[in-house]
Write a structure and sequence with these properties.
By secondary structure, the chain is α/β, with parallel strands linked by helices. The chain contains 6 helices and 13 strands.
């Protein structure tokens, strides 16, 4: 039931985000003036609910807008082989689309596919909250934090956890422990009477909030079991990319 976790007063928060991805194996649409019109901005045909908030929980809905850059700019003249984009041309197309999304659709958060950026991408907490919300109802949860994490990482975890804690029966911790793990343990017991337990193996009977990734694309750990309900930066990006390519979408410009 939708009201299962809404145990205390929440303010409503709606958010638009903009995703830039790649359409694998695709070319620009024939007859479409890409130079004049730019990459078409589209939106997902539904909004996604989420819960978020450390001190005053917010019930929100997220609308996802996006563009997909065709993997190839065209074909070579003589042999018809796929032709890659010139980096500055692709960058300009994406920047123009991003500007239209910000101005036209109030997309205050932007996320890029890993192939489009050299640096680790910040994932909006609302987007991770959308992924966690999809596993409800649950009253058990596993969490991992970076080994050297401190209060900043703890705040991020509590933003995601707090709306669910009033009905939580068990929280387990997996992975390397740092200062934030001890602070989380104290917080859970003092505020909610929850005794945090440890585990060497992530259980598959509950969502796993994995914030323990170190931020580099190459070193993200693989999910150890297809049954595990993992919410991590990597899995959130996979959800976002799969969602925009699902076909239930609308062209908006």
């Amino acid at each position: 039931m939708e009201a299962y976790y809404i145990c205390f007063s929440m303010e409503t928060n709606n958010k638009n985000i903009f995703y830039m991805g790649i359409a694998s194996g695709q070319y620009p649409e024939k007859g479409y003036d890409l130079k004049k019109l730019g990459l078409p901005v589209r939106k997902i045909g539904r909004e996604y609910p989420y819960l978020l908030g450390k001190e005053r929980a917010r019930a929100g809905r997220m609308q996802i807008y996006y563009v997909l850059l065709p993997e190839y700019s065209g074909k070579t003249l003589f042999r018809g082989r796929p032709k890659r984009w010139k980096e500055d041309r692709a960058q300009r197309l994406l920047e123009e689309a991003e500007e239209r999304a910000v101005i036209g659709y109030d997309c205050r958060e932007q996320v890029s596919a890993p192939q489009l950026t050299r640096n680790p991408m910040r994932i909006p907490p609302e987007l991770m909250a959308v992924c966690l919300y999809q596993y409800r109802p649950f009253d058990k949860l596993c969490i991992s934090l970076p080994g050297e994490s401190r209060e900043q990482e703890l705040d991020e975890a509590l933003e995601l956890l707090t709306p669910y804690l009033p009905r939580m029966k068990q929280v387990t911790f997996a992975g390397e422990e740092g200062e934030a793990a001890g602070l989380l343990e104290d917080y859970l017991y003092e505020e909610f009477g929850i005794i945090m337990t440890r585990t060497a193996k992530v259980p598959d009977d509950r969502p796993w909030l994995d914030l323990g990734e170190d931020g580099s694309w190459e070193s993200y750990p693989a999910v150890s079991s297809g049954k595990i309900k993992c919410v991590s930066r990597r899995e959130t990006l996979k959800f976002l990319d799969t969602t925009v390519k699902s076909g239930y979408n609308t062209k908006v410009d």
